[in-house]
Amino acid sequence: MVYKLGSVPMCHTPGIVAWAISGYKTEKKAVKRVSWVKMLTEGYGLPDTVATGILAGEIPYRVEGDTVVVEVEDEQ
């Protein structure tokens, strides 16, 4: 599955993802880490497992212009 997280003029997605990764990694309380995951799941429609994987550095992503591209194997 390929997820393409696009930007809009007032919202630069590569910067938001980088900010979320930083916040997730520096937050020690699991309860507060949920808010970073929620930002990606509700804001971009990612499944919880994909959002958590990106934030934890377990799922790589690439930036193409103003778009964040994430490729993951389909869950069966």
Main sheet overview: 3 strands, antiparallel
**Count of folded domains:** 1
The topology string of helices and strands comes to EHHHEE
Oligomer: single chain
Radius of gyration, in angstroms, nearest whole number: 12 Å
Helix residue percentage:
40-55%
Describe this structure in words.
There is one protein chain. By secondary structure, the protein is of the alpha+beta class. The chain has one domain (2-71). Helices cover 50% and strands 17% of the residues. It has helices spanning 13-26, 30-44, 48-56, and strands spanning 2-5, 61-64, 67-71. The chain has a three-stranded antiparallel beta sheet, with helices on one face. Strand 2 (61-64) and strand 3 form a beta hairpin. Helix 1 (13-26) packs antiparallel against helix 2 (30-44) and helix 2 (30-44) packs across helix 3. The protein is globular. The model has no long low-confidence stretch (mean pLDDT 94).
Write the layout of secondary structure elements.
Elements (H helix, E strand, L loop, with lengths): L1 E4 L7 H14 L3 H15 L3 H9 L4 E4 L2 E5 L5
